[in-house]
Every structure is written in structure tokens, then in C-alpha cells.
Amino acid sequence: MEASRINARLMREAIGHEDESILVRDEYAALRSGQIDIPGEQAFVKGCDRLVWQFPMYWYSCPPLLKEWEDLVLTYGWAYGTHGDALKGKELMLAVSVGSAGENYHHEGEFGYTVDELLVPFKATSNLIGAIYRKPFILTGVSSDMSNRNLEKAAKDYLSCLQGDWPAQ
């Protein structure tokens, strides 16, 4: 996420307030080798109560590394299926930054869908693995012209979201 000014700022806000309830991990930095340590990743997420997948929206979905991570780590018999209950009851929340303005994301808007509708595959994944899907933190209009002032407010809002109870959807 180094290339994203927005996601880098959100991550810095969370890192600045890390404690036993918030542990920030940059998967791109952790996986620089290009190899996903499946048992290591499974042990890491099994030890968490809440998973937050923070990413910029690419082509109405997540970046390829997150999709690959899902494919490799959320395996049958571990995350779902017979005896696959490692993540059951954990919370899953998305923190998504979207380049275009929020008004473009509605049925009569430029894209014809809301951001929440575009995130339905993640909700379905949450259901499959038995996680509690929390309302996503969605930040729209983050193209390069987002003001520093608005970004600082968004970072504070994000931290409040991470620290507090965030409603199930």
C-alpha cells in the first residue's frame, strides 16, 4: 500500500495507536518475497478477534494480493467446510478507499452500484467462514485531489472505527 497516499495515512493512524486490541500488519510488506506462508498466516489470523482488510478498490474489487491470500489461506477444512471453523465468530471488517466520488456509486450514478453492493463477495466470504461481517469503513473521493484536511479527518474516523464497536451489517 506504499503507493497509496490514502491507505498509507490510514495505516499510520492505526499504527500510532497499536495496543493489544489493534495490531497492524501490512501484507504487502510482510510478503515481499511473493510467497504466502499459509500455516503462518493461518496462525496469525486465528489469534485475532477482528480482521480488518484495508485496501484501495481496484476494478470494483480488491488488489490481487488480497484475492490470492484469500484463495490460499482460507482453505477448506480450516476456514470453511468439514471442521473448517477456525474463523467462526471472529469479526471481519473492510476498510476500502475508492477513487471516485461517492455520488457516482448509486443505482442512477455513473457506476450503477453502491460500494456496499460491490463488496458483497466479501460479505459472502464472511458468511462462508462463519465470521461476523461488520459495516465497512468506506472512504470515497480519494483521488489525488483529496485535501490533507479531509484525509486527517478520515484517519481519525478510521481510528474511532477500529477502536470502537462497529455495527454488524
Automatic annotation (TrEMBL):
Coiled-coil regions listed in the entry: none
Domain of life according to the entry: Bacteria
Residue ranges annotated for the Flavodoxin-like fold domain, each copy included: 4-160
GO molecular function: electron transfer activity; FMN binding; NAD(P)H dehydrogenase (quinone) activity
Pfam hit, one: Flavodoxin_2
Gene3D superfamilies (alphabetical): 3.40.50.360
Record's keyword terms, sorted: Oxidoreductase
InterPro entries in UniProt: Flavodoxin_fold, Flavoprotein-like_sf, KefG/KefF
PANTHER family membership: GLUTATHIONE-REGULATED POTASSIUM-EFFLUX SYSTEM ANCILLARY PROTEIN KEFG
Protein name: General stress protein 14
